[in-house]
Amino acid sequence: MIRIFAPILLAWAAALPLHAADRTPQVHLAGDSTMANYPAENPLRGWGMALGRHFVDPAMVHNDAISGRSTKSFIERGDWGKLLAALQPGDFVIIQFGHNDEKVDKPMTGTDVATVFPDNLRRMVRDVRSKQAVPLLATPVARRKFDRDGKLVPTHGAYPDASRAVAGELDVPLLDLERATSAWLQREGVEASQQYFAGFTSVGQPPVSPSAPDNTHFIDLGAQRVAELAVMEIRALKLPLVRWLK
Q1: Which residues contact 222 (CB under 8 A, 6 or more apart)?
Q2: 3-class DSSP state for residue 18?
């Protein structure tokens, strides 16, 4: 069930400094490669690159997501500190991690889903709120993985549920992108879903090579669709941010 946060966030807005109420809020993105920016020559596109198209001023969106990052490495390598330094009262921060936190075999990246991962999310929420800004948690986007019967297979283990639990515990708006993107990919099906991901030549055709299919990262069409789903989540929650959507 989608929870509506308008009363809570309207009360928050009323408590902002007067100058903050007059400025256009900025939307900062913290996440991994599925959200990150890529250079023009790279066919990959993170959904954060497409999000600005949905706002009255695309420059409102600041994509601070970085490929390969987990909650642990995003904090420890200083990326989180840089994002916090740029925050002003009234800004929003969308936090989406899980893809790399899952890599528990890599101690510099992976996090325990029962302890470190939720603790890092709690820290991020507290840090954003300390800046009089609004944190939004997002579950990780689904991978394109189907079983023999054409049913999408979840690949993120308990990490989406950990994000949901922290959102409920701390009363944080949740963009449930894992559920939204899973439903979308299931509707598209095994073949049609290829058109949104890297490494496929055309729908229904074999990939360029056995190692070429990339069922995690999007091309522009996929990034656009995920950004649309994120905006649908924002609208459904009736967040104050809706005011700046097209």
Answers
A1: 45, 47, 195, 196, 197
A2: helix
Angle, vertex CA 86, rays to CA 21 and CA 222, nearest 5: 95
Can you read off the two tokens belonging to residue 182? 């899973």
The residues, ordered by sequence, that sit 6+ positions from 44 with a Cβ below 8 Å of its Cβ are 33, 38, 198, 214, 217, 218, 219
Nearest to 140 by CA among 28, 201, 234, 226: 226
Question: How far, in Å, CA of 39 to CA of 60, rounded?
Answer: 20
Q: Which residues of 181-205 are buried (b: 16+ CB within 10 A; e: fewer)?
A: bbebbeebebeebbebbbbbeeeee
Q: What is the pLDDT of residues 82-116, one digit of tens each?
A: 999 999 999 999 999 999 999 999 999 999 999 99
What global pTM score does this model have?
A: 0.91
Q: Token pair for residue 123?
A: 């820290």
Ranges of each domain in the chain: 6-244
Q: Are 246 and 12 spatial neighbours (Cβ–Cβ below 8 Å)?
A: no
Helical H runs in the chain? Answer: 6-14, 18-22, 47-51, 71-76, 79-86, 116-130, 159-170, 177-192, 220-237
Rounded to whole angstroms, the Cα distance separating 161 from 176 reads 10
Q: Cα(118)–Cα(124) distance, rounded to whole angstroms?
A: 10
Choose between 84 and 14: higher pLDDT: 84
> 6-244: which CATH topology?
Rossmann fold (3.40.50)
